[in-house]
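Re: the 318-residue chain
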Amino acid sequence: MAEILVVVEQTDGTIKKVTLELLTLAQSLGSPSAVWLGSGYTDAAGSSLAEYGADKIYVSDSSELNDFVVAPKAETLAAIMADAAPAAVLIASTAEGKEIAGRLAIKANSGVITDAVAVSADLIATQSVFGGSTIVQTTVTTGTPIITVRPNSTAPVAKAGAGSRVDVAATISAASRGAKVTGRTVAQKGGRPELAEAAIVVSGGRGVNGADGFGVIEALADSLGAAVGASRAATDAGWYPHQYQVGQTGKTVSPQLYIANGISGAIQHRAGMQTSKTVIVVNKDPEAPIFELADYGVVGDLFAVVPQLTDEIEKRKA
C-alpha cells in the first residue's frame, strides 16, 4: 500500500485529537506513517500513534525545531518526504499546519489543498469555499498531494499499526533560522475543550446582549462538556475574548454538534461553522438567516430557552 504521511500535532508531547483523526483518514488512503517534529517524543506517544494505525513513526526529536518559527519543520518534513516518496501528506488545518503545508509545497514542487473536510480514496478533497457558499471537489495535478484537513472532519477509529520508529535528523538551514522564538507564554485554560477541536460548540452572538449574558452560554457548554464560541459581533463588542470568535476572520470549526444562540447567521459567521454535522439554532427572529443551516431550530428568547435546556441536560445526567 502507498505510504501516507501524517504530521503529528502535539503540544509538549501531548498528541492532539486531530492527529488521530488524520491517521484514521490515512487508513482509508494507504499505509499511515506519522511524522513527529520537535522535542517531547515518548514511548507512550508512539504507542498512541500506533494504536490509531501508524505503521511507521518518523521521529525528529530535536528541540531546535521548537526554537525557530515553522521553517525548520517544513525543511525536515521535505527531507522525509523526499526519502519516503509518499502518495500524499496530511496536515491539520491549523495556523501552523497551513504554513508548513505552504512551505512544503514550494520545496517539493507539489500542489497544496487547504481546509479539506473529506478526502476520497483517489485523493480527491472536498472543500467548502467562497465563505461556505460552495462545495467543491479538488485534486492536486502536480507532484505529491499536500492536504490540510479541518479538525473534526473524521471520527478517530483505533486500528493497530506496526508503529516502527524511524529516527530522522532535523534539517535546519541558515535561511530557516531567520525567525527565532524568543519567549513563550502559556495560555490560561479552563476545563473546556479547545474550540477548534471540540466535538460540541455552544456559541453566543449579538442576542446575548452583553458580557454577562454569556453566563447562560457557558452554563450550557459546561453541561455538555463543550467549547464556547462567539460571533464577530459579540467579540467586537468586547463581550467575549477574540480567540473564541467563530467565523471567516476567526476560527473555523466542524464539530459534531453546533448550538448557535442569538446569532443572526451573517455569511462571515456561517463560513466558520457550516460544516458542523448537526446545527441547533435558538433565535427570537424567525427570519434569521442562521435557520437556513439549522437541523433543529427554536424560535424564542435564548434567556428562556437555554436555561431550560441546561436544566434538562443536568436532570438526565443525574
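The chain has two domains: 3-177, 195-317.
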